[in-house]
Amino acid sequence: MAEKSSGSAVGAAGRAPAADRADAIRNVVLVGHSGAGKTTLVEQLLAATGTVQRPGRVEDGNTVSDFDEVEVRQQRSVNLAVAPLTHNGIKINLIDTPGYADFVGDLRAGLRAADAALFVVSASDGIDGLTQMLWEECSQVGMPRAVVITKIDHQRANFEEALAACQEIFGDGVAPLYLPVITNGHVNGLIGLLTQKFYNYATGARTEKEPGAGYEAQIEEHRGSLIEGIIQESEDESLMDRYLAGEPIDVKVLIEDLEKAVERGSFYPVVCSGLGVGTHEVLEVITQGFPSPLEHPMPEITDLSGKPVQGVTCDPDGPLVAEVVKTTSDPYVGRISLVRVFSGTLRPDMTVHVSGHGLADRGHEDHDVDERIGTLSCPLGKHQRPIPKGVAGDIVAVAKLGRAETGDTLSDVERPLLMTSWTMPDPLLPVAIRARSKADEDKLAQALSRLVAEDPTLRLENNAETKQLVLWCMGEAHTDVLLDRLSKRYGVEVERVDLRVPLRETFGGRCQAMGRNVKQTGGHGQYAICHIEVEPLPSGGGFEFVDKIVGGVVPRQFIPSVEKGVRAQMERGVVAGYPMVDVRVTLYDGKAHSVDSSDMAFQIAGQLALKEAASKVPTLLLEPVDELSVLVADDYVGSVMSDLSSRRGRVLGTEPVGTGRTLVRAEVPELEITRYAIDLRSMSHGTGTFTRSFLRYEPLPPNLANKLAAAG
User: What is the pLDDT of residues 648-666, one digit of tens each?
Assistant: First the structure.
């Protein structure tokens, strides 16, 4: 790969790299934990190809991909960003993604937009659980991958340990192409294991020479493993026999087989990178080993009715099918959509059909609209460089799509199509907020609608029961970024408030009660008396109203009035203001007046009767109980089960899932898991995930019931 050529076509700084055909494009997503060096690697590659004059530094806040003011302050990526460059006539769209679990939505979008993944592993920090999970996710879909071990010049760097960790965690097919040459703690260059040449970077320019004699044993050890791995993936079955027989294998044959295996997603080369070292090798892996968009499977496409559509390929002359992988809104610039074109060609000022479906539960209404797009541009961080078109396989920025949201499909107006959206994790951290002032309240709805359009991992809930505005987020860091954007970008100040969990009330026993509504006011008065019996029903029993009136003591037309009054009082609650459930109310006696009785009089009597019943028997507060399914590594199962028990949970069982993971199922009160998304991540070192679903209501323990009743 990188050993075949030393020339590089340098792109001109400030000019957008152009691509007229899909086979001259590589879309590569950079994946790795926060701090692994993804953004720094992007800067080095941009500088090495002349796209920027000099690489920026995360610490200085001047990198291309971390241009958001939140990223500059926090010195970490929180958004997906695209940095295009050109190398040897190939346009490479580098997709820099966040490495923190809270921003996995942007990371998943990057995986959708890419045709290959570059896993970035720090030589000083190792591999985290999220990176391992994403490797497995890429493996399931057969995405081609390579590994870059960064920070090999760090004082705590250990290349051999980092390589061993990659081979242990990522599995078979992971093998190094180069070994770093370190002298007195400084990385001078790399040794190519196939060519057995030393590529010296000591002077700043890459030169080739013979390696020193002291590296023979190290080269031989790694070279033998690399060649065996390549031969195992070769389509030429005779190579292994020839190799075992001691016959030398031509390096060109090995490189060609290596490139094919990487392209198929069955072999994963490891290269290494430090400041000023390894950029050429990374670029060659990308351009010669990774597939073009022509070789990447097309996502599932349907028409608007859901019927599958066949025959759509990565053809610039085919029907337009593109997908919005990222939406950003700016109060001054407006909405900009980052779009991956899968088929057809996008041109400025053309009219497209915008389809969005499947995220209504997160505040994204289903929509089908025609819109005229504005200018097309090639993004380089915050800079938008105009381009004449976006061909199939390319990633471009589109202006003025007012209705388009992240995950939407753009297609021909005459032939609207819909791409099956990628899987998004559920936001499981609820955060209740309220506007700080009346002026903020007036602007809040519009600002939140823009945030929802940008971020499909955010769910907005207006809880009708608790009267609270709730943001469902991925974690604490996600929450902080959202609130920061509300304040800094949209000028809306909000404050967090304690989250209220919607409770219920019910009767703790059977009793009889009377509702007496007798009033004389000079004209028509009110006269209604009803006798009821209340009794609790099993959990989930709802409400039953039983009519046992005989002899017409309550006229037939007023019996529904009693029920209506009872229902109204149940909605308001009788003790702490929570709705009442699981109750049977039997109307068995009453009195009426020929003149003063009315529908409203008996409604009030029904309400009074229910209140009197509440004074005669204990009233229980019920809390919602959820069923949790927690997926964790085997090492953390004991801690997770103990923690669930401490939350008043009942562990129902465990079952193995794949290799090294266990699914723990439990029933846990909602009051105990409002911050479980944060706690599980801490407990499992970022490797645990969970889902939750409402199960039923159960009585609160008396001590908690008294506390919440007083608060209510």
Answer: 999 999 999 877 889 999 9
